[in-house]
Amino acid sequence: MAPLLSLILSLLAASVIAEDSALPSLNDVTAAEAFIEASEVVVIGFFETPSDETFGYKEFVEAAKTVKHIPVALCSDKEAWAKLGIASDTISIFRKADNHQDNLQLSETKKVEADGLARFITMNELRYITEYNQVTAVGLFQSEVKGHLLLFINRGSSDYEVLKDRLGALAPEFVGKFLFVLVHGVKSNEKSLGYFGLTSRDLPRVGIYDRDSDMKWLMPEGEITTERVRKFCQSLILGNLKEVKQAGEPVPKTEL
């Protein structure tokens, strides 16, 4: 009877949290690790006491409603906290693209607003292939990964989905070495395209930007295959690209 009683109590506790926030509760290390492993990007609110009286809790729940495409959960289990390096109430983003954990420690935050938390989450939502825009640019350039593999492509092109999926499947091979970035050939990205000497009429093309050296290159024209892109990435890792002529004009650059 004890296991059955334990299960009933767990379900009752989970239902209380669900009614209050509609967010799942991760009650042990195994649940937390499984939640993190299940998606490219997840967010966990580590609250010792998840209630409306807790600083930042209500705002976190509201922010979660605006980022419905990202799995969000709560965790109060101290063993899971220790395993994941959490010391106090914290909102954390876990992402596979660069194997990174971004922490917003609430005790170090004077003011918390739902909009600000939603922006923090969206800004750091880096995936195996991340669409470039003004918001994700912040997270891309704050990442410790300095190499960017860029797919310049027009959204409505016939090979859009094929190439996007092809590079997305390749990205896990280069975790920690490259962030794979999707740059659409739209007006708001004209500056990024021009940096590589491109216009929307030239797409699709593949490029590399190395933040360490502030250098950039285009993969030679031709079919964009998995093997060609793989070799292109490896050429930077091996140092071979440094001897190749850069794309576009050699203008100092801090942001695409």
UniProtKB/TrEMBL annotation:
Alphabetical keyword list: Signal
One GO CC term on file: endoplasmic reticulum
Gene Ontology terms, MF aspect: protein disulfide isomerase activity
Matching Pfam families: Thioredoxin_6
GO biological process: protein folding; response to endoplasmic reticulum stress
Signal peptide coordinates: 1-18
Superkingdom per UniProt: Eukaryota
Similarity-based family: Belongs to the protein disulfide isomerase family.
Name of protein: Endoplasmic reticulum resident protein 27
Originating species: Oncorhynchus tshawytscha
